[in-house]
Description:
The protein has six helices and no strands. The protein is globular and about 50 Å long. Helix 2 (32-39) crosses helix 6 (88-97) and helix 3 (43-56) packs across helix 4 (63-71). The termini are far apart. It has one domain: SMc04008-like (SMc04008-like fold, Orthogonal Bundle). The chain has helices spanning 6-26, 32-39, 43-56, 63-71, 75-82, 88-97.
Amino acid sequence: xxxxxxxxxxxxxxxxxxxxxxxxxxxxxxxxxxxxxxxxxxxxxxxxxxxxxxxxxxxxxxxxxxxxxxxxxxxxxxxxxxxxxxxxxxxxxxxxxxxxxxxx
Length: 104
């Protein structure tokens, strides 16, 4: 971003990230597999990226803590309330598009 200092840029990026999380928390109808098939990332990816950043800074945050932050509730609760079984077409598309993606 031209003519913006690093602190302001970080603040803008953080605000956009928080807005993305809020949007994903509202859109529980959008499944992770749909996100993966369309965009190549999902809520779990976001929590994994946060984990990587936290680990680089030796913050000691757990994968579950960060998933809870991203999902706005414990991951198992979100899965129980909102996750649907993927259909064969979604699974096929995921397999075709994400051969090298490590997703857990």
